[in-house]
């Protein structure tokens, strides 16, 4: 198995970072996780735009990032190792090595890594069980929380907590106790022909699948509501689902032991198929 690192392809066991790397020592970096279908990255332009956004938020020079065409070509080459139609692509950026201390070097020499791994999509109708995290809250003012920071400790802790309860993932609340998102996805509710999702001010990372769904709702004439909801208010919805750019949509059939509505009686299947088709056809937003 090979990876791409700092401009060249390397065998996995030969790729390494220095012990002074700030990503390793301080979590000073960011990443994008992407879906590749038959060698092409879905929504690649949107992913690369968000990569630029991550860089800008931590004052990392955008011109040091690989170009979209280069990333596409790298993934196409690495994809040949995957004997599946789908793969998960991770592009990781660390600010690289620097002197001891918090302030980064004025002229960073980053570590940039691209990996491609086998991925098996899960059917949207396969239900998930969520449990509300008691340990972790989203902070709307957090820089790390607003980007895909390589410091993922909050999400790791929440996922471990949910697993200890017998859940598939954690429902994470905002600092004021309202529903925000899961560890890896945005969350939506359906009531009749109306969609609901938490507002940006809850401290969520607004995902590309979320953007796609909101655009779809506008195009199909469906209303979207953003008002705050506590976990016990989720029972008012006909269906709950999660969304991210890797897995697409996943129905939620239980929150904190409470059974949620029946997605088959909503427009969930139509929307799930629309998202999956877009991911497989590599349509950019």
TrEMBL record:
GO MF terms held by the record: lyase activity
The UniProt entry, under PROSITE patterns, shows: AA_TRANSFER_CLASS_4
Domain of life (superkingdom): Bacteria
Enumerate the UniProt keywords alphabetically: Lyase, Pyridoxal phosphate
Q: Does the keyword Metal-binding apply?
A: no
Answer whether the UniProt record assigns the keyword Lyase to this protein: yes
Q: Which cofactor does it need?
A: pyridoxal 5'-phosphate
InterPro entries the record matches? Aminotrans_IV (IPR001544), Aminotrans_IV_CS (IPR018300), Aminotransferase-like (IPR036038), BCAT-like_C (IPR043132), BCAT-like_N (IPR043131), Class-IV_PLP-Dep_Aminotrnsfr (IPR050571)
Which PANTHER family does the protein's record reference?
Answer: AMINO-ACID AMINOTRANSFERASE, AMINODEOXYCHORISMATE LYASE
- Give the protein family: Belongs to the class-IV pyridoxal-phosphate-dependent aminotransferase family.
Q: What name does this protein carry?
A: Probable branched-chain-amino-acid aminotransferase
- Native species: Thalassospira povalilytica
């Amino acid at each position: 198995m090979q990876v791409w690192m700092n401009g060249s392809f390397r065998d996995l066991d030969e790729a390494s970072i220095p012990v002074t790397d700030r990503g390793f020592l301080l979590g000073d970096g960011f990443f994008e996780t992407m879906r590749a279908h038959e060698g092409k990255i879905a929504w690649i332009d949107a992913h690369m735009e968000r990569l630029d956004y991550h860089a800008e938020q931590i004052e990392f020079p955008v011109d040091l990032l690989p170009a979209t065409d280069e990333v596409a070509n790298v993934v196409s080459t690495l994809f040949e190792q995957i004997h599946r139609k789908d793969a998960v692509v991770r592009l990781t950026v660390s600010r690289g090595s620097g002197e001891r201390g918090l302030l980064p070097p004025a002229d960073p020499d980053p570590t940039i890594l691209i990996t491609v791994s086998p991925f098996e999509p899960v059917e949207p109708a396969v239900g998930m069980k969520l449990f509300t995290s008691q340990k972790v809250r989203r902070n709307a003012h957090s820089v790390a929380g607003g980007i895909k920071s390589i410091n993922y400790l909050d999400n790791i802790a929440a996922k471990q907590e949910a697993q200890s309860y017998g859940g598939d993932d954690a429902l994470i609340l905002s600092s004021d106790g309202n529903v925000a998102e899961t560890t890896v996805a945005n969350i939506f509710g359906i009531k009749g022909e109306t969609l609901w999702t938490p507002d940006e001010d809850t401290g969520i990372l607004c995902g590309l699948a979320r953007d796609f769904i909101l655009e779809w709702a506008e195009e199909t004439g469906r209303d979207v509501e953003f008002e705050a909801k506590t976990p016990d208010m989720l029972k008012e919805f006909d269906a709950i689902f999660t969304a991210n750019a890797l897995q697409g949509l996943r129905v939620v059939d239980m929150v904190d032991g409470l059974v949620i509505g029946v997605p088959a009686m909503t427009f969930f299947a139509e929307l799930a198929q629309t998202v999956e088709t877009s991911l497989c056809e590599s349509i950019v937003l």
